[in-house]
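Lab channel / #folding
Pinned by the channel admin:
"Please post every new chain as: sequence first, then the structure tokens as a reply. Keep commentary short and put observations after the output so the thread stays searchable."

First post following the new format, from NK:
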Amino acid sequence: MEQNRQEVKQQPPQERIKNFFEVSLGFTEEQALAEAKRCLQCKNPACVKGCPVEIDIPAFIKLIKDKKIKESLSKIKEKNNLPAICGRVCPQEEQCEVACILSKKNIPINIGALERYASDFADEKLSDNKKKVKSAEDTQSAKVAVVGSGPAGLTAAADLVKMGYSVALFESLHLAGGVLSYGIPEFRLPKKIVFGEVEYIKSLGVDIQTNVLIGKTFTLKDLFKQGFKAIFIGVGAGLPQFLNIPGENAPGVYSANEFLTRINLMKAYKFPQAITPIHIGNKIVVVGAGNVAFDCARVAIRLGKDVTLVYRRSETEMPAREDEIENAKAEGLKFQLLTQPKEIILDKNRMPSAMRCSRMELGKPDSSGRRRPVEIPNSEFEIPVDNVIVAIGQRPNPLIYKSTPELKTNPEGTICVDENYMTTIPGVFAGGDITTGADTVISAMGAGKKAARAVDNYIKTHK
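Reply from TO:
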């Protein structure tokens, strides 16, 4: 029974590159029951310790085994407010699954697929997960503001409203979800899933206000003047980093942020029906090798383009999830590894025509633990391109702390917090990518959950 780990079926590569439908098809009931039966129901489950949001994993799996899918989802939502999202994009293989006792035999429980199954197939009409919106009499007098509706903000807001606080969540864009809405492609995370989870957060009583840019529409001081007793900042890391090479500022060179926002949030891939289409040529180069770089590359493939990924290290050092790399390979992505861009060569119309690069070799490890790329002398060559997408990381947007000088930041732009997620301003907390730099969805959710507890403790001790 231990050996028969169930794997999720996928759309065949030759089909999925022609559409934006979800690649992973999820478990069938037969698969879910078979996988749930493999769980050993450990008395001291290490998998729970590996979960940043502390889900009682054996308990929800046992409920699936007993065909109590509604109850299984309820159990998950005791700790995780975004299970349908986590079941799709959480790197379980690096967290709960690697801690599973069966991982010693390289056959851990497929926890992520089971979480998605419970989320997708629980009968929501009969479920008690959608609570009634709390009335004023049910809430505590304290008002809490949450800034940013990404995974950290949504988690903190939901947990705080469950504690009885009156919570207003402010989002700068016209739709909630943060990176879940604008960053992750439809074929990995359908937006109907995201918006469904957002509606659940609303149903708990969170007041989500879109088109409100904190730092411009309101400052942090303004929020305190409006009666908020505490503020949580979870705005993520949305400021793109660039290569700083000649030709990078030309039209036809996109940051990953712009490219994915136009594709995901503005539906630019629905050409010619899209109100805001994106016009790119046939030869696309994506620079980088993280999950965002692979998202960009796989989107471009679905647009019918010839796509090459350029990375200055080898495949071994790629930070992207292994399954994303394998999916991209199956979809026809080309790789130009140990390659460093030096210049984007422009044609007479100031559009990209080629990328001048150098060959690299790996030297000693750097501060990240990966071997440092070293340029090979006299190794320059050119790659023909029509467009370049730069996906080499993001930094925090400086808008909030530029409008709030008292908010101390690190040299890289992240907000300084103490062990309780408190910033240098009393009553202002922060968590997620705005404090750590770009990280995973589940890490941000874990920070939002812990920060919510810290906010609760702060308000109770500062009455």
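NK: Residues 441-461 form the longest helix (21 residues).
TO: also worth noting, Residues 242-392 form a domain with the FAD/NAD(P)-binding domain fold (CATH 3.50.50.60).
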